[in-house]
């Protein structure tokens, strides 16, 4: 179960945090059972002991210890960091491909939990819980209107496997209370957000992360597309912050011939390790296009870099994030952990795509915002003129094409960002979850008119009148809206409203079918 705004358009800072914190594990390194300990007479240990025993006020030593460790690590590089127990658990569950829970997504509206997604095959679906249901009571105790928090909700729905939860819910478009018994179980988290035929010959697969199940998820998706007649693949890695290194190499193996070097890693304490393709790939011959953007990082860049260096795919979009460091996770007894950078990775041509962090963590975190200010999201030449590429060694693909190092993967085909989709108003509406709230409050009756996804996608269009109603609805939360922003945001608002309605009833596939119809990068990818 995860809480989601269900939106593509997020702010730069929120996405940067996701790249920095949520996607830094390396399965190969993390799998090793390496013990470690701090020297008991170190200055850090002594100072903490002094504070604990002698400080004038009571203090939370665990909290101070975590902050101290994190500050130390952040002085090394931006991706070495301390993870509190809950954060470490959340990251590991996401990348391990599942957790114990009931399998829902939700939104809080007026202090009431409303189900916005029910995972196929999960405990909630098996119990008959429907999208749009309002959860009123849990185990005969008041739940709705009880000052709900994300922490409390997680405590209720996640936890011990096979434990039963009694839910009193009001089903969608109903006023009657219904009792459901839901037994917690393992909930699978797929790496594949969407898979469908984009046209008669082209299959589309969007991968959101590189987890323990990514290759299996991909092979299932690819098999389904081949049945539908696919001979060309559009692989969407936009917004994918990475994950396990060996998940990236396994996916690269699906496209590359036996013996091809995919990536290599090395560090002072880590000898060079080479990762090669095998002869087991399911798509070694077909035409391949990969979509990336400034939020494609780490494992995404390993895959895109290998396919670019080996001339196996056309890379379309904008310059990727620029993370070429490999982390190993060291766990503490209390469930917290340290992610420590232990190696760098290099693409087959020998290039490192790690952007500089010599000016400190704050400068590093602001780098994406600086790209926008310098116009790099809107001009290919602005990217090439950037100092990150000046003075760096020259690298070339297998066929001799020049490629760049030192600041992410530069695409073969540049697509500028669409500014109309990134207005402050769009970002505010998304952050406040107002698109999904509007679907829940105002569009459920509308969705009843369309029995199938295909009918909804082909027959329904958001009218100007509907946009006006949505803006009026949103103004109850966002009190001041710039009239010019409202005007230039009207078309993107139409697309997002339709996409969120489609997702509410038919899931992520339907959502991306709508979003991609108005997506310039997607359309450019289809042309390759």
UniProtKB/TrEMBL annotation:
PANTHER family per the UniProt record, alphabetical: CARBOXY-TERMINAL PROCESSING PROTEASE CTPA, TAIL-SPECIFIC PROTEASE
Q: Offer one example of a GO biological process linked to this entry.
A: signal transduction
A single GO molecular-function term is: serine-type peptidase activity
Q: Where is the PDZ domain?
A: 88-145
CDD domains in the record:
Peptidase_S41_CPP
Keywords recorded for this protein, A-Z: Hydrolase, Membrane, Protease, Serine protease, Transmembrane, Transmembrane helix
The scientific name of the source species is Mucilaginibacter gossypii
One Pfam entry for this protein is Peptidase_S41
- Keyword ATP-binding assigned to the entry: answer is no
Q: What is this protein called?
A: C-terminal processing peptidase-3. Serine peptidase. MEROPS family S41A
What does the sequence similarity comment in the record state about its family? Belongs to the peptidase S41A family.
The reply to whether Transmembrane figures as a keyword in the UniProt entry is yes
Q: Where are the transmembrane segments?
A: 7-25
* Upper lineage: Bacteria, Pseudomonadati, Bacteroidota, Sphingobacteriia, Sphingobacteriales
